Amino acid sequence: MATLCWWAPPGRAADSLVWRTGQVDAEIEAWPLPKVLESIASATGWQIYLQPDTRYTVTTRFHKLKPADALRRLLGELNFALLPQSGGPTKLFIYRTSVNEATQLIRTAGKSKAETALIPNELIVALKPGAKEGIDALAKRLGAKVVGRLDGLNAYRLQFDNEAAAQSARAELESDSNVGSVENNFAITPPASLEPLAMSSAPPLSLKPDVNPSSDRIIVGLIDTPIQRQGTVIKDFLLTGLSLYGDYQPPADQVTHATAMAETILDGVARALRENGNSSAKVPLSILPIDIYGGNESTSTFDVARGIFEALNRHANIINLSLSGESDSELIRSLVQEGAKKGVLFFAAAGNTPVTTPSFPAADPGVIGVTAGDAQGNIAPYANRGAFVQAIAPGLNVVHFQNQAWFGTGTSFSTAWVGGWAAGTMANSSQTAAQIQSQTLTRWGIPAKR
Fold first, then answer.
1. End of a domain among 188, 211, 231?
2. Is the pLDDT of residue 387 over 90?
């Protein structure tokens, strides 16, 4: 239970808001809305998001109301959505027009979990063309195992017994004339959360695929987790994908990150078609899912590079990277540069930490870094706002799997919205990739940079 009281003038009892588990009392006179929300957040531990520029004054008195009824009395004509979460604090969104606009955090969340972590006993090694010593001989000499191969780029993932062995080998590799580059490998997690909604209806996807073979079909490479086909609205748009983890099958009772991103990409496509006056058109567009996670909670910079390489080899026009890391990778950067030269558009998540430090690959040249925020350009309080960020879009969406609606938040969703919009614009246009990129940044760019 929490009781919050404030001084009141003589002759009137002090205002109070008493929030017990399952029961709320209030004696409130002319409280500004932020004060009410701060009190609720303090009493409950909820993360509360408000639509910016919402002005409302609360005067109410009630006793022993259930929390949902108390919220209705406290918030009056304002809309709200309460989202319980199994793995974190409940989220409360308060808005006038759309839940997408509720981006102002009332109470700062606890310290965010780092999205990247060094894999201390691994290195990524790229050999020079024509190297005299092959990777297997080199690994044996250093006492390492080759646990990942990208032969097309002469790049390999080496695993050592411990961190000390890896660092000793790095010192030796940096002076080896056969080695083009050596870098650390990092674990990367997708910056998004997904929770089931208690009530929702699944509207049919408004897009119709163009199933005719076409040399100019748009392919969106989705570098992500395993994707689900059955029980989704996206299956008709999915190409046969590729998994770096063989025949791993995702769970049947939990929507995966990739499935959510694919539906959000298609929502972005549909939005582009509506805004361009082509909402009834069939779409010559497919999504190429590439699983770089398998059943793991994180992937690595090396496997991100492998995913990009495979997408480029399969002629992707757009590559969606709804993931974020803190460390740059020379291997990823070189792949992006090569793809960008050929007209491939890259979109990557800025990350779910409210800092200005660069995140990668979003900050790499040739990548459009996307953060979360509203249509006025207000960046969501949880999202990266660094100078490298070029685009801003809603950091949330409602997606559907097995007749269940799921609510997701994070810059992952922002990235999929913008990448999908670019794909939808490209699908029914004869414009060049450079023109599509310019048009996309005009539509979704940070207002100060448009």
1. 188
2. yes
